């Protein structure tokens, strides 16, 4: 990842994520949640939640190197999104979870409303490998400002598989 002084998001290279398998054993995340309307989070609340989580991770000296940073979203309903931010140790005042399992990743590039299309495409991809997704997580690698600047809106989709 390359990050210039005026960037808030590091430049993203999709190559290490495309079609890769990741086996996690108690990978540590802090969890926040934001309200949303029909799977669309309210931008000010999303930004405030991510900023708070990152600040607390930094204060606890638990912030990962940017090359290891992941911020995944999982929507348990159309009205709520759960955010999972990687950390290197427990962060006081933040809910922590440890994820274990096998995750396959694919990279997509498109608008924020495209995940239903991507899930369908990913399901077909997994079917060709005789696998089925248990759960999907979405990691948009750029904020809207950096997406515009870099000309891409990459999303790493994590499929937790059996």
Describe the secondary structure blueprint for this structure:
Elements: E1 20-37, E2 40-41, H1 43-59, E3 71-77, E4 80-86, E5 95-109, H2 115-127, E6 133-140, H3 144-150, E7 154-161
Antiparallel strand pairs: 1-2, 1-4, 1-5, 3-4, 5-7, 6-7
Brief overview, please?
By secondary structure, the chain is an alpha+beta fold. It contains three helices and seven strands.
Label this structure with key terms.
single chain; 162 residues; alpha+beta; Multidrug-efflux Transporter 1 Regulator Bmrr, Chain A; 7-stranded antiparallel sheet; 3 helices; disordered N terminus
How would you describe this structure to a colleague?
- The chain is of the alpha+beta class and 162 residues long.
- Strands 1, 2, 3, 4, 5, 6 and 7 form a seven-stranded antiparallel β-sheet that branches.
- Strand 3 and strand 4 form a beta hairpin.
- Helices cover 23% and strands 40% of the residues.
- The protein has helices spanning 43-59, 115-127, 144-150, and strands spanning 20-37, 40-41, 71-77, 80-86, 95-109, 133-140, 154-161.
- The protein has a single domain, classed as Multidrug-efflux Transporter 1 Regulator Bmrr, Chain A (Alpha-Beta Barrel), CATH 3.20.80.10.
């Amino acid at each position: 990842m390359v990050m210039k002084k005026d960037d808030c998001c590091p430049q993203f290279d999709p190559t290490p994520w495309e079609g890769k398998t990741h086996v996690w054993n108690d990978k540590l995340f802090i969890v926040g949640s934001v309200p949303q309307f029909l799977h669309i989070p309210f931008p000010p609340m999303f930004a405030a939640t991510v900023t708070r989580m990152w600040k607390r991770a930094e204060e606890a000296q638990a912030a990962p190197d940017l090359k290891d940073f992941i911020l995944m979203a999982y929507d348990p309903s159309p009205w709520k999104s759960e955010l999972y931010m990687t950390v290197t140790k427990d962060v006081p005042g933040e809910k922590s979870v440890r994820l274990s399992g096998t995750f396959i990743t694919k990279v997509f590039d498109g608008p924020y409303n495209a995940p239903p299309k991507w899930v369908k495409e990913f399901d077909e991809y997994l079917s060709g490998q005789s696998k089925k997704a248990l759960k999907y997580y979405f990691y948009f690698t750029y904020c809207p400002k950096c997406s515009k600047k870099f000309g891409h809106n990459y999303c790493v989709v994590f499929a937790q598989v059996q």
